[in-house]
Structure formats: structure tokens, C-alpha cells
Amino acid sequence: MEKQWYVVNTYSGHENKVKEKLEMRAESMDMQDYIYRVVIPEEKVVEVKDGVTKERVKKMFPGYIIVEMVMTDEAWYVVRNTPGVTGFIGSSGKGAKPTPLQPAEVDKILGNMGISRMDVDTELEVGAKVKIIAGPFNGMYGSIDSVDLPNQKIMLTVDLFGQETSVEVELNQIQKA
Q: How far is 64 from 168, CA to CA, in rounded Å?
């Protein structure tokens, strides 16, 4: 089974508490190999009020968090029974497992936050094989030459018309091959 992203419904306004509790439970119950990342979808918003410009963080989906996890019975139980969680989105209830988000949906949500769906620390090593899933090189495979995290860019070597060529792609345009 592979890790995928799921939407979890929480009590509105309790997203930060649920994220903290879920991360603590994953660690204390030794579920780090099944529950990877817990993200509260947020975006920066610039507001002008009384002539004063303020930047603040706004929740994209109040009452929801997204969780990257491997959907096993144990992991499902841990998330479902975390205080503040009301359930998974995409589940009919009655013990049915939820439907994961599509990669394009995850990329859009995480991309707005400047985060990649890939786990940068473990999946983006020089020499790793990746598939390009968007942009002019869509569908091509390449190997990583360098990673520029601050700018969210990656230099890849791809086979272009029988010749190895270096191309620069954005982090959200690739997935692990």
C-alpha cells in the first residue's frame, strides 16, 4: 500500500489542536510509518483596512485538514479517534475507508501553500528518477541533477530526441517514478 492524501473533517476552529494531537498520537502509538504529514491548508492574504496593509494567514478550508498516510485499519482508527476529528471526507460511513485525493488536487492545495506533495528530505536526492507530470515536458522521465528548494525548482536530465538534456522544472511538476 502506498501513502496518499486524505481530507479529515474537524471541529471548525480546532484545526491546529487536531494537527498537534494527531502528530502526537502518531508518534506515541508508533504510527510514523503510516501517518506522515498533517497539513492545515492555509494561504497568505493581503488586506487593506483603514489605509493600513496587513498580511494574514487564512484557512483555505475551515474545519478541514489533509493527512498524508497509508490507509491501514490501524492508521484509519488512530486518525478517526483523534479528539476533534469528526470523520474523513469521501467515506460513506459504516466503517468504509475514505477515497484519497487525486494527485492534481493535492498539488493545487499544497502548491498554493508553497509545499510539494513529495517528501523533499527522502524523495528528492540527486540521481533519483522522477516523472514530469505537468508543463512542456509532461510524461517524460528524468533523473535529478540538483534541487533548488528556496525557488521550488529542480534541474533534471531528460532524454530529448535521443540526447541527454538538462531542463528546469518546478517542484510541483514532478512525481517519484
A: 34
Alpha-carbon dihedral sign for residues 111, 41, 105, 131: positive
- What is the per-residue pLDDT across 166-176, written as a single tens digit (0 to 9) for each? 999 887 778 77
Is pLDDT above 70 for 123? no
Cell of residue 163, nine digits: 540526447
pTM for the whole structure: 0.69
Neighbour order of strands in the sheet with 64-69: 35-39, 64-69, 4-10, 85-88
All residues at 6 or more sequence positions from 3 whose CB lies less than 8 Å from its CB, including other chains: 36, 68, 69, 70
Tell me how many degrees the CA angle 10-66-57 measures, rounded to the nearest 5.
80
Q: Which residues pair with 6 in a beta bridge?
A: 67
Instruction: Name the one residue in this structure whose C-alpha cell is 484545526.
Output: 15
Residue 118: the pLDDT is: 64
Residue 43 near residue 113, CB atoms below 8 Å: yes
Distances in Å between the alpha carbon of 160 and those of 4, 142, 157?
Answer: 31, 10, 9
Q: Chain-wide mean pLDDT for the chain?
A: 86
Give yes or no for residue 151 having a pLDDT over 80.
Answer: no
